[in-house]
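Q: What would this chain look like folded?
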Amino acid sequence: MKNDKIALPTNREKAVELFATNPEIEVKRVAELLGLHPNTIVNMRSDPNFHMQVQDRFMTELENDVPSMVSALKREVLAGNVQATRLMFEYMNKLQKNINITIDSPFENWMKKQEFGDVADAEIVNMEEFKELPPRTANNSHLEGHKERVKLQNAPKKDKSVKNRNKVRREQYKWVKRAEAVGVNKLSAKRPTPGQKKAWQEKIIAKEKQAS
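A: My prediction, written as structure tokens:
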């Protein structure tokens, strides 16, 4: 009679067992227990199948603890814990949670608001008359609707921008009149730099002081 060889667990199987039965264990500790380098354990954990094996082993271990958990729940039930009683009934399929959700269509909601009574009494319209819809025009297209919404949203900003621009123009007009009054030439038609504008205004102020 041949002696059957007993297959010893591999390091991978040992690692799976350690992680499944000790969820908080660290990689460094597993490596120490197995006599391996931590990088070896890290490489094992990089394999998705390794995590599936750990999860399967954990669920098996959890199922083994179900009788103990039910016994603990029973103690809570006998102690008068209402929530534990509900959980126990659910576990025993004695209590079922039924959720009834009623969703009315928009048309039904509209009918209820109008209080037209039974919908069955409404006039039936022959839908054959509406086989073809009228062509969509530019005024009722989605693009035009989007443009209108953007226009309304930007209206306050645009109004503020116009007011600021008008304020700058009024201020510039006052400086031009002051320059003409003291004989200072206008600024170049090109957009002046802040430094050029400041020098021009200082020149106007100096001329006004000389004239006074």
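The chain has two domains: 11-91, 144-211.
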